[in-house]
């Protein structure tokens, strides 16, 4: 039995080593804070480890992890001490493993301004590259809701980025 457990741990460790950077970036986009992103990823991976043999046999590891990541983010945001300040209010200048904030300031500000549901849909659809149906399944919502949330989020992002672009042009002149 020890050999079986060792194989399980090796397979899990290999998966985590391969996917952890992508999981961290997705969590960072969801919550805007590298420390909270680490917590979200750790929680999702802990959930995955418990059911690893079943999920691996079913060949649905990525789907399970995406859903666990989103659910962990939702759980984190519901914690009482998280309600005191909104996510991303004090973003660091740059953190290890996170995208360069100063290079993407306008996009990040616009993304951070989206409601959490729209941000989740944008991250799953455009960061992970999931289909409407996969996003709906991961979030536990209908495909129509995914479409309407995506449409509203993209319109808000376009508007915010256009406004920021206009203000940058005014500052240059």
UniProtKB/TrEMBL annotation:
Residues 17-82 form the RNA polymerase sigma-70 region domain. Keywords: DNA-binding, Sigma factor, Transcription, Transcription regulation. Residues 105-157 form the RNA polymerase sigma factor 70 region 4 type domain. Transmembrane segments: none annotated. Belongs to the sigma-70 factor family. ECF subfamily. This is SigE family RNA polymerase sigma factor. InterPro entries: RNA_pol_sigma-70-like, RNA_pol_sigma-70_dom, RNA_pol_sigma-E_actinobac, RNA_pol_sigma70_r2, RNA_pol_sigma70_r4_t2, RNA_pol_sigma_r2, RNA_pol_sigma_r3/r4-like, WH-like_DNA-bd_sf. Pfam families: Sigma70_r2, Sigma70_r4_2. It comes from the Bacteria. CDD domains: Sigma70_r4. SUPFAM superfamilies: Sigma2 domain of RNA polymerase sigma factors (SSF88946), Sigma3 and sigma4 domains of RNA polymerase sigma factors (SSF88659).
